[in-house]
Design a protein that fits this description.
alpha+beta; 5 domains
């Protein structure tokens, strides 16, 4: 806008039009025209106090205040449409001209159309400085730029991802590198950042990545279960930034750009073979970075953290959070779930139910409807291993699992010594011990059809003519009643021993042997 007030003031001081034009940064023709209009309207310096710049323009050039007959574009609509993919100002202007033609209105030229929008956009893009409270927020993000380490075995370059955390108040930063951006790396980075700061902020402000936010929403975002569990352990809360709104976390966004220059770019000439070496180099550069003085205010990030923010952080818990990964599994018909190619048993009542699995470094925990139903030590080594608890089995399966040589021998000893000898012979008669389990079970189950005494007698009979009898031998003896002969002989021997006096000789034939009465 032309500085009409300054033109009249400088003219009253006796300056030439050339000097006035140089001071007000406008042409001499404009100066001459303003002074002529002022003389015509009787305006002279000093002006009345109630005359504003807008009033002065209306008095000098009333024609400029007339409304334009051209159609003014809807700048809010333009701003909203430009956010869509492929939409440009040129396209919107052509559509605007077509609308004006249909409504018989005069459109603006393209340059004026763009000027209207630029004025609107400059007001909507206005920024506001928000004074953050000490200990209130920690902003976290992955840096867009990556570093590299060399695989010592094959010489291949491996990408390394950089985690950055910054406190909103002091801008004190923490940086660490990882080989992956997975859930475990994300949680571990937070744990190390809390330890570095020596405390916890009230709020965590992450991006909307899947390791932090499962479902983004301005009103009710769904936080990742592991991330939420970690936040509860440290007594903080997660409030993610809006999607595509980097100004919601300006601290870490600015720090990411500075880190890329002062740390990653500074280490570009060095070669690292392990993450430990790279982290040590980053830690040294980070210390220097946090101690660098601010450009526009006194102190540094470190001094601001120590003076203003450290005392406001929440204390760390007594123990660090153990990183846990949550998964969903379905209980199969063998009442096991598969986790990382290992199999863990679940109570058989939950067959074909979906369960939540919490995986830590040493323990596998299984939950159903937020109630823990079992836990197992985590298996390592070759895939396909099983960890089964007997309490999770149906009763019939428990009996099968309890089959072993020791149990069969103890069971046989309760019947008699001959039965125990037969069971041992059956077990040792097979190359694999488990092959004899069914035969042992069959021999011992014969007592249900006959009796313990008869089974013992049948085993004794079988051992009298073979050192390794089987189930068929014992079953045949019992079916044919051959065991009864042994029992009758034993009973007769006991009767004779009770009625006759003991003989003095080892073998004595009786009167019945010679056919005499």
């Amino acid at each position: 806008m032309t500085k009409y007030r300054d033109i009249l003031r400088l003219s009253s001081m006796g300056l030439s039009q050339r000097s006035i034009a140089s001071s007000c940064q406008c042409s001499r023709n404009t100066i001459s025209e303003v002074l002529d209009r002022a003389n015509e309207n009787g305006l002279a310096w000093p002006l009345p106090e109630d005359v504003t710049d807008a009033d002065l323009q209306y008095l000098l050039f009333p024609e400029k205040a007339q409304a334009s007959s051209r159609k003014i574009p809807d700048c809010e609509y333009i701003h909203r449409e430009l956010a869509k993919s492929g939409v440009t100002l040129s396209l919107l202007w052509s559509e605007y001209c077509e609308m004006c033609r249909l409504s018989r209105e005069i459109p603006l030229k393209y340059t004026q159309y763009c000027n209207y929008y630029r004025k609107y956009a400059s007001t909507t893009k206005a920024t506001m400085h928000i004074q953050r409270k000490p200990g209130e927020q920690m902003e976290v993000d992955w840096a867009g730029q990556t570093a590299t380490v060399v695989d010592a075995e094959i010489g291949e370059l491996l990408p390394v991802y950089i985690f950055v955390a910054a406190l909103s108040c002091s801008q004190f930063a923490y940086v660490e590198d990882f080989l992956s951006q997975n859930q475990e790396s994300w949680i571990t980075a937070h744990i190390h950042a809390f330890a570095h700061f020596g405390g916890v902020t009230k709020i965590l402000v992450p991006d909307n990545l899947k390791t932090g936010v499962e479902k983004s929403s301005w009103y009710s975002p769904v936080i990742n279960k592991t991330y939420q569990e970690m936040a509860e352990h440290y007594g903080t809360t997660v409030i993610p930034a809006r999607v595509r709104k980097p100004k919601d976390k300006p601290g870490v966004e600015g720090t990411v750009g500075i880190i890329s220059t002062w740390i990653l770019a500074a280490l570009r000439q060095q070669t690292f073979f392990t993450l430990t070496e790279l982290n040590e180099a980053i830690a040294d550069k980070l210390t220097v970075f946090n101690k660098r003085p601010f450009q526009k205010k006194p102190g540094s990030r470190l001094s601001a953290f120590l003076d203003e923010e450290k005392h406001a952080l929440l204390p760390l818990p007594s123990s660090a959070y153990e990183c846990a990964i949550w998964k969903v599994a379905t209980v199969q018909f063998n009442y096991h779930i598969a986790v990382d190619k290992m199999h863990y048993s679940v109570p058989y009542e939950y067959i074909k139910h979906k369960v939540d699995v919490r995986v830590t470094r040493g323990v596998i925990e299984v939950f159903y409807n937020h109630h823990r139903i079992c836990s197992h030590p985590k298996l390592y080594g070759r895939p396909g291993q099983y960890h089964t608890l007997a309490d999770h089995m149906p009763d019939k399966h428990k009996q099968y699992v309890q089959w072993n040589a020791e149990r069969f021998i103890k069971w046989a000893e309760q019947v008699g010594p001959s039965t125990a000898t037969v069971i041992r012979a059956i077990l040792t008669g097979h190359r694999v011990e488990q092959q004899g389990y069914k035969a042992c079970m069959g021999v011992l189950k014969l007592a249900d059809l006959y009796s313990l005494v008869r089974v013992e007698a049948a085993c004794a009979k079988a051992l009298s003519y073979t050192p390794s009898p089987g189930f068929k031998h014992i079953s045949t003896i019992l079916k044919s009643g051959q065991d009864m002969v042994i029992l009758e002989q034993a009973a007769a021997a006991e009767t004779d021993s009770d009625t006759r006096p003991p003989s003095l000789h080892g073998f004595t034939r009786g009167a019945s042997y010679y056919g005499r009465n």
